[in-house]
Amino acid sequence: MENKRFKYSTITKEKDLDALIEEIGDARVVMLGEASHGTSEYYTWRTAISRRLIEDKGFDFIAVEGDWPECYAVNRFVKGYQDSGRKIADVLEVYRRWPTWMWANWEVAALIEWIRDFNHLRKVNEKAGFYGLDVYSLWESLEQVLKYMEKHDGRAAEVARNAVRCFEPYHRDPQTYAQATAFVPTDCEDEVVQMLEQVYRRPVYPDDPEHEFSTTQNALVAVNAEKYYRAMIRGGVNSWNVRDTHMMDTLDRLLDFHGPNSKAIIWEHNTHIGDARFTDMANDGMYNIGQLAREKYGRDQVKLVGFGTYQGNVIAGRSWGAPMQKMEVPPAKEGSWEHMLHEMSTDDKIILSKDLKEVPELQSPIPHRAIGVVYDPKLEHLGNYVPTIIHERYDAFMYFDETEGVHPLHMKVRGAKEPELYPWNY
After folding, report:
1. H-helix or E-strand containing 81?
2. What is the predicted pLDDT for the residue at 424?
3. In this structure, which of 23, 35, 231, 331 has its CB flanked by the most CB atoms within 10 Å?
């Protein structure tokens, strides 16, 4: 469809993704964003895109903005490993850390069901995987390493126990640990690094190479989580950079593990997958996984797809750890990217960045909406818009004029006592 500003394609059915799939071409990494963590349409359309990439282009796995231990349990389920669970809803109960609705929802259940069906008759090395990229699972990852070491290497298990004991006084509360390290010149860094060294030295058990990989990954999570929480209490942007560097390192490791021709699909917030160099994040010295992947693999091998909406509702919390609510998403503010797309038409759209390069008003940064897990619609104008050069930040953008919140699985929440540690809740 031609417009006085630029060209776009309407989307109503999966066939309408053809132009996007063609634009992705032979890229090795495709990152699919979201403007919030609680919007149904983002999950549903990312699932549709991921299906096409796995079926038509041979992509090997999906890696998401979730914790490694929980996502690895889902990975074993979709690959049909022994004792990995029988019911999707039961398996998704692993997601008990606030905000549970990010991955414990019916939209993710539909994705998991499709991956499991896809994998059913395939050989082990042909099955699509599901992994977590994030760094928050300090205690869970420590427990997984200790459990493994106690089973396979009793001598090395004592090093893992030392790491666990070091963190015990902080009662599984990252904020307490981080605050303690700010005032006392001691921490658990040496203990987790020594544990990682023991993991690297352990014997290799070829019967389950993916579980071997997972053990090393949990040790790396513990090392980087400890670093992340110490950085958080000191303020500044370093904690953000520690987190996204960990995500990028995990992506690299997953690609290496799956082989030289492997391909990855990433699901994360726009603030992580959209190249930070073309936002005001760069002014603060922040970078993200989208930028790091482009720099390492090249722009032709990394395709970044942003997502956004004009209005609707979303699942979020009023503060960190607060009960989830369905909140109104008001019409986007005038002059924003979302308002511009709404003014063009109320169609849901796919816009390719190559069609934006000659549009005068898009050559400078314009406001682009971003909603985190903590949200207050009344205060949106104060901090929920990121100045962005759209056609540089993304390779394509999917716009939905009106969206609905995800459909959560209601579960008991753990880990809700961390509000001061999350200045950015993306």
Report:
1. none
2. 54
3. 35
Please provide the DSSP assignment of 116-182 as one string.
HHHHTTS-GGGS-EEEEEE---HHHHHHHHHHHHHHH-HHHHHHHHHHHHHHGGGTT-HHHHHHHHH
Q: Which residues pair with 314 in a beta bridge?
A: 327
Q: Which two tokens stand for residue 24?
A: 């992705």
**Which CATH number does the domain 9-122+263-421 belong to among 3.40.50.1480, 3.30.420.40, 3.40.1660.10, 3.90.1530.10?**
3.40.1660.10
Q: How many CB atoms lie within 10 A of CB 321?
A: 18
In the chain, % of residues over pLDDT 90: 78
List per-block mean pLDDT (blocks of 10 residues) for the chain, which spans 426 residues. Answer: 71 96 98 98 98 98 97 96 90 93 96 97 94 95 92 86 92 84 78 91 74 93 92 84 97 97 98 98 96 98 98 96 95 96 96 94 96 94 93 98 94 54 58
Which amino acid is present at 358? E
Residue-range domain boundaries for the chain: 9-122+263-421, 135-234
Give 254's DSSP letter. Answer: H
Q: Which amino acid appears at position 34 of this protein? A: E
The residues with which 350 forms a beta bridge, in sequence order, are 9, 398
Give the number of other Cβ atoms within 10 Å of residue 53's Cβ.
24
pTM: 0.95
Radius of gyration of the chain (CA): 21
Counting other chains too, the contacts that 278-283 makes at CB distance below 8 Å and 24 or more residues apart are 278/365, 278/388, 278/389, 278/392, 278/393, 279/365, 279/368, 279/386, 279/387, 279/388, 279/389, 279/393, 280/365, 280/386, 280/387, 281/386
Alpha helices in 184-259 (DSSP H): 189-201, 209-234, 238-258
